[in-house]
UniProtKB/TrEMBL annotation:
EC top class named in words: hydrolase
Protein's name according to its UniProt entry: GDSL-like lipase/acylhydrolase
Keywords for this protein: Hydrolase, Lipid degradation, Lipid metabolism, Membrane, Transmembrane, Transmembrane helix
Protein family according to the UniProt entry: Belongs to the 'GDSL' lipolytic enzyme family.
Gene3D superfamilies from the UniProt entry: SGNH hydrolase
GO BP annotation list: lipid catabolic process
Length: 356
């Protein structure tokens, strides 16, 4: 899950940003900053400023932008900019920032093959630096208030399986830990990141789980004989996601408030991966862009097979959901039941926060 597709995967982030001011009743809406942390599912351009192989700044990425360019980052005045963008300065800091970086994971050794990415601990360091920059602009008390009232999105974890534990047969981490112990280790390390985020002022944090890792076209192409999902990767996700949710519940109890909101993206993905036609897709096995079996080999380039209608495919490239799939995920984040969102969905959060 390395390349960061600025036109499809960031849809989750941009959709959230663009609706923040319109979900609550008119007159009660308030502007709030939005901060994003994580991997390629939310990286909207930070890796384009780095010397790394984990980038998606060339065609056909961006094909559905109005500009048809792969690095279009300005989608209106409310969209968050990549933290490494030189355009993120002055009043634009008030909107928030995106710290995501394709290829990273919970662990520092995840994604080392991509050479130069913004590890999770560095993303949090940058957030601390961001607050220092904002304090210079608006003062300490206003900065703390902006951060406390902001919405945060944290999306990380999948790479710790596909680009670490299962990256190669007999990987270093798989020799070090049996899978159940590895998952517990991931959850323990993740908790440290979330605690630090809280210590830095975050008070409303959406935390997504992993999708059906073994069902991505890349895994079907390399691990499947007849189109079935990789049972081993699915086992990893099945162990990880419930423990993530339980950890968030424990952390909330410790903090005495519903700080962390669990988004069951595994179930959201499963709905249309197992029954794609019910959601208007023609396939959940073949990627729109790629090559080889299921278009799941390598990365998406101008030489790849490219579908004419992206809305008919669950997956855009070998690893990442399409824009339509991400829209469905956002809909569940906004209004989904406790099957998908615990303890509450984002619409409920925004209504509650508007009344305080």
């Amino acid at each position: 899950m390395a390349p960061s597709s600025n036109f499809v995967h960031i849809m989750v982030v941009l959709s959230l940003v663009l609706i923040l001011g319109v979900i609550v009743p008119k007159g009660e809406a308030r502007r709030r900053a939005f901060f994003v942390f994580g991997d390629s599912l939310v990286d909207n351009g930070n890796n384009n400023y780095l010397l790394t192989t984990a980038r998606a700044d060339s065609p056909p990425y961006g094909i559905d932008y109005p500009t048809r360019k792969p690095t279009g980052q300005q989608l209106g005045t409310v969209s968050t900019l990549p933290y490494l963008s030189p355009e993120l300065k002055g009043r634009k800091l008030l909107i928030g920032a995106n710290f995501g970086s394709a290829g990273i994971g919970i662990l520092n050794d995840t994604g080392v093959q991509f050479i130069n990415v913004v590890k999770m601990h560095t993303q949090l360091d940058y957030f601390e630096e961001y607050q220092q920059r904002l304090t210079t602009l608006i003062g300490g008390s206003r900065t703390r208030r902006l951060v406390n009232k902001a919405l945060f999105l944290m999306t990380v974890g999948g790479n710790d399986f596909v680009n670490n534990y299962y990256l190669v047969p007999s990987s270093s981490r798989s020799r070090q830990y049996p899978l159940p112990h590895y998952v517990k280790f991931l959850i323990c390390e993740y908790r440290k990141h979330l605690q630090r985020l809280y210590d830095l002022g975050a008070r409303r944090v959406l935390v997504t789980g992993t999708g059906p890792l073994g069902c991505a076209p890349a895994e079907l192409a390399t691990r499947s004989t007849n189109g079935e999902c990789s049972m081993e990767l699915q086992r990893g996700a099945a162990l990880y996601n419930p423990q993530l949710e339980q950890m968030l519940q424990r952390l909330n109890r410790k903090l005495g408030s519903d700080i962390f909101i669990a988004a069951n993206t595994a179930q959201m993905h499963k709905d249309f991966v197992t029954n794609p036609t019910a959601y208007g897709f023609v396939t959940s096995k073949v990627a729109c862009c790629g090559q080889g079996p299921y278009n799941g080999i390598g990365v998406c380039t101008t030489l790849s097979n490219l579908c004419p209608n992206r809305d008919l495919y669950v997956f855009w490239d070998p690893f990442h959901p399409s824009e339509k799939a991400n829209r469905l995920i956002v809909e569940q984040i906004m209004s989904g039941s406790t099957r998908y969102m615990k303890p509450m969905n984002l619409s409920t959060i925004l209504l509650l926060d508007a009344s305080t």
